[in-house]
Amino acid sequence: MKTGVRASSFIRQFCGPGANSEIVCFRFWQLVPAGGCPYRCSYCFLQTVPWFRFRPDQLQGLVYANVADMIAEVGDWLADPVPKMMLVGELQDGLVFDSAYLKVTGKPLTHWIIPMFAAQKRHRLIFLTKSTEVGHAVKLEPTRQVIFSWSVNAEPVAARWEHGTPPPSQRFAAAAKMKEAGWPTRLRLDPMVPYNGWRHGYAEAIQRINQLEPEMVTLGAL
């Protein structure tokens, strides 16, 4: 894991595809607390980004040490009177760097930003993740302003294409732990991939989703 200083903004807006693309995708704000991702999912777009192709060492994970700049930006963003949603996990996994932040900055990432969202009632934050690293976040008081959303899949898909990630069974267990602790929890069955035996694999995944009863389920496919 490398460390660095982020020179550009920590917060950016995803404006979606072009108006004539016929692709429907909502706009959202994203927080970029780190660069790259230690997971090596075969379908991940990060592996095609020129920045990482020329800096493969950073693709495995780069933690930004100038946390004071990030906190200042989040504070300014939260001051906006228009309700908005912020996502952590679009350009990296949302939780996988939590302990790395503790080592580099003295606090886990969740402990830096969750209290800021918990202190207000206007904006919400989503952690999108395949990680099972919930040990730090679960110590905080749950708040409706912060959502944890796990990307899950059929077990054979994860074993074949989601290299380095915890198996879906462990992700479901992490999601269940956070839900039991009182946190809003969502699941993304995404991306669904056709393979021999897909009916059984995805039926099993859907059964696990139903057992968890998340507040929202998102479906996606390659």
Notes on the structure:
The protein has 222 residues and is α/β, with parallel strands linked by helices. Helices cover 33% and strands 23% of the residues. The protein has 8 helices and 12 strands. It has helices at residues 50-53, 56-59, 67-78, 98-105, 109-118, 155-161, 168-180, 198-212, and strands spanning 2-4, 11-14, 28-31, 34-35, 40-41, 62-64, 85-88, 124-129, 146-152, 162-163, 185-192, 216-221. The strands form 3 sheets. Strands 2-3-7-8-9-11-12 form a 7-stranded mixed beta sheet. α8 (198-212) links the parallel β11 and β12 (216-221). The longest helix is centred in the last third of the chain and has 15 residues, at 198-212. The relative contact order is 0.13.
Helices and strands in order:
Elements: E1 2-4, E2 11-14, E3 28-31, E4 34-35, E5 40-41, H1 50-53, H2 56-59, E6 62-64, H3 67-78, E7 85-88, H4 98-105, H5 109-118, E8 124-129, E9 146-152, H6 155-161, E10 162-163, H7 168-180, E11 185-192, H8 198-212, E12 216-221
Parallel strand pairs: 1-6, 3-7, 7-8, 8-9, 9-11, 11-12
Antiparallel strand pairs: 2-3, 4-6, 5-10
